[in-house]
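Page header: ASSEMBLY MODEL / two components / 411 residues total.
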Amino acid sequence: MIVAVASGKGGTGKTTVATSLALVLGDCQYLDCDVEEPNGYIFLKPEIKSRRSVTIPVPEVDLKKCTFCGDCASACQFNAIAVVKEKVLVFPELCHGCGACRLACPAGAVTGVLREVGVIEEGAAGRIDFVQGTLNVGEPLAVPVVREVKKAIRGDEDVLIDASPGTSCPVVEALSDSDFAILVTEPTPFGLHDLKLALKVVGRMAIPHGVVVNKTQDMDNVITVFCRERDIPVLLQIPLQREIAVAYSRGTPLVCAFPEWRKSFAEILERIRGWAR
Amino acid sequence: MKVAVSSTGPDLSAGVDPRFGRSQYFIIVDPETLEFEAVQNPNIAAVGGAGIQSAQLVIDKGVSAVLTGNCGPNAFSTLQAAGVRVVTGVTGTVREAVEKHKKGELKPTPQPSTGPRFGMGRGCGRGRRGPRGF
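Prediction written out in full:
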């Protein structure tokens, strides 16, 4: 079973939920796909055993062969090439590495050179297989790194995916092929607003899903009312408690600081195993 | 030689648009005769590379200079590659800008005046929320 932990709003507790689930599962793969700011390692404290680059092919133009026809620039959907007079300008930070320019060039003047956009690190935290991707500073393209992290999925163990917040491409990439999505939010108008956005994404992707409400002060709140109306299962509510925040700030996973929470997370896993596709 | 002015409207009385890549219009104007052509900018909603495309657009119009509010690094290097001079910090109406240019009161900018993605508000495909803030 592949379970993705996602959210519309950031800072709601994805990593708290994902790391606790991983620790309760024990034998599993934990993939930190929040490549812009992976933080699962702070809690799981893995031993990193290998490190490798993620690269994308960006165009290099042989000006001896180039006829300056501009076909490469027209083929590029990301405006990463400009042909002006007798010059070809490549903007590597806009390039998605799709290779359309190479295919479009009638003179065979475009080749691809590999450019590093991020790093994949693999290791272990006890019985948990740990994989994380880190996007290089200044790189705008997270998707190739997320894709590379997900290649680590073997299929013989449960997988927990810690996605980035929001609803943009890296989130969609992290969610794709998941059997279940846990959407973490908080009982605020902002939390509700962004939960609705996240629900649209998982709805469109036809991924079974449930909600975890974090920082709850009242068990009956804007999120539970909304979920009841829409028939969306609320899997767990985590109270707004100073001690939980203190443990978090020290990098202690919730289920390690408060072992009594293990049972609640085990129950979530049991419930979603029945619903997962 | 014609110049291109980033503009908020389709004529000489419109204000200079502070953005280059995502300017509403480009007024391609002959400073001597004030004959002009208004081009609606097709790159306003581009996900990325609006500046590059806009630069390509005005280069293809054969202008020798661009008068605008701000110009990012990608648009700047594209214009520079084509030998187009870039003047940033231009305000007022398009007509005023062209007249100042004609009198030689505007000096070309040696470097981009903003970082990339200056003209992008929140929203354009940046559906990411949280403490990291875009």
